[in-house]
Amino acid sequence: MQLYNSLSHKKEEFIPRETGKVSMYTCGPTVYHYAHIGNLRSYIMEDILEKYLRFTGLDVKRVMNITDVGHLTSDGDTGDDKMLKGAKREHKTVMEIAKFYTDAFFADCAKLNIKTPDAVVPATTCIDEFIRVISVLMEKGYAYEAGGNIYFDTSKLEKYYVFNDFNEEDLAVGVRDGVEEDGNKRNKADFVLWFTKSKFDDQELKWESPWGIGYPGWHIECSCISMQQLGEYLDIHCGGIDNAFPHHTNEIAQSEAYLGHEWCNYWFHVLHLNTNSGKMSKSSGEFLTVSLLEEKGYDPLVYRFFCLQSHYRKSLVFTWDNLDNAKVTFEKLIAKIAPLTADRSGDIDKAEYDRLMQSFNDALGNDINTAMGITVLYDVLKSGSGNATKLALIAEFDKVLGLDLIKKAEEKAASAGNDTSDLPAEVLELAEQRKAARKDKNFALADELRDKIAALGYEIKETRQGTEINKL
Ligand SMILES: [Zn+2]
């Protein structure tokens, strides 16, 4: 398959180091707040990449860290500790906050059909490993102590800015956007590996180290967790484009300095989700979460579908209108699949199956072109083959797309039940409430609503075809 590699700035044939196996690392969330849907766009697209690699028969091991210490509000090592900020905001301990938002993150992922990585590792469980790797960097002369902190010395590298062709002056790292400059740094691009002095006063989490009691910098955790779980070589490292610099740049610096050889072959970066007023963030504008989408009546998979409609290397603009359009398109798609589920008899048309499967592979194999993959889904629906062939293809495609297409189509077919178009609005409203109550397993309420419907002169019952409502 062809995959764009941020490191080479071009599409390349993806060749794993070890035949048939892929090691894949993803930067996980900083668990001080809910993830916004912009962050989740990255995780959706990374999930598609993982699923497609598996789809082609590769054995993938994917690892994700959970940042529960060390990430400051500025990625340039300044500002407050994000975890501490979250804990203060909610009058809880850092670990309580970490647990709560880790669970919330995976609950959101589950709703979006994002597979949980094979290994999920909180940074606070690997402190000894961070200290060990930092010690090696010190021994090798890549790190220095200044003002009580340990810094990585970027001047020791032949090339530091690996993802872009900017030079140091252009970027003026750490001083962009007016963040405070750290006078301890020998070079502007240097970054903290271990904190002792700065921000130390109210730091809740701290550990003994050869350099004094303190806590790790943010960047070191991903290098260490990746190397610990996946070894000295990594096939694919993923993350949002925000992370390319400085986070991923620093990961490469410290990993390769530690290992003494190249570390990761392919870098997969997902572009931003923007709003009309600019890049989405937790601090500006409406805080868009999966829960908010649900409160507004959207199925989270509509958001997944919305993301799949465009390419991961393009910025995507989120507006409620755009989401509404995706919702309508998604519902129409399900409505087209629904009738196929009624009659699955017949043989698979092998030639047609192979042709359409090839088209799907051409789409996804071309740098994860999900929009094209969805177009192929429509080609399946338009093809002259029988239901069995169509459903088999849709089920296979959905192993990658993760849209619950067949399940939703079956539900749609079942809920079609009998014709309800001439029933009074009041009855339909009560029937909807009853459906929700049954879904929540609140059967007492469901029975109450059935009685209310009966009082209006209608009988509601479940049949194999779905819910039926008839005049009494
Ligand atoms: Zn990372």
Would you write up a description of this structure?
- This protein is of the alpha/beta class.
- The chain has three domains: 2-270, Rossmann fold (3-Layer(aba) Sandwich), CATH 3.40.50; 294-414, Four Helix Bundle (Hemerythrin (Met), subunit A) (Up-down Bundle), CATH 1.20.120.1910; 417-471, no CATH class.
- 43% of the residues lie in helices and 17% in strands.
- The protein has helices at residues 37-55, 82-90, 94-111, 127-139, 168-171, 219-230, 247-259, 290-295, 300-308, 320-337, 350-364, 370-382, 387-401, 405-415, 425-439, 443-455; strands at residues 2-5, 10-13, 21-26, 59-66, 72-74, 78-81, 119-122, 143-146, 149-152, 191-195, 215-216, 234-240, 264-270, 273-275, 278-279, 316-317, 458-463, 466-471.
- The strands form six sheets. Strands 7-4-3-12-13 form a five-stranded parallel sheet, with helices on both faces.
- A hairpin with a 2-residue loop joins strand 14 and strand 15.
- Helix 9 crosses helix 10 (320-337) and helix 11 runs parallel beside helix 13.
- The longest helix has 19 residues, at 37-55.
- It is globular and about 85 Å long.
- The protein starts with a strand and ends with a strand.
- The model is unreliable at 169-178 (pLDDT under 50).
- The site of zinc ion has 3 residues, from loops.
Strand content: 15-25%
Count of individual domains = 3
CATH topology of the largest domain: Rossmann fold
Our Rg estimate from Cα atoms comes to 26 Å
Tally of individual helices: 16
Q: Work out the number of β strands.
A: 18
Order of strands across the biggest sheet?
A: 7-4-3-12-13
Which sheet architecture does the biggest sheet show?
Answer: 5 strands, parallel
The class by helix and strand makeup works out as alpha/beta
Low-confidence region ranges: 169-178
Indicate the CATH class of the largest domain: Alpha Beta
Measured as a percent range, the helix fraction is 40-55%
Terminal CA distance reads 61 Å
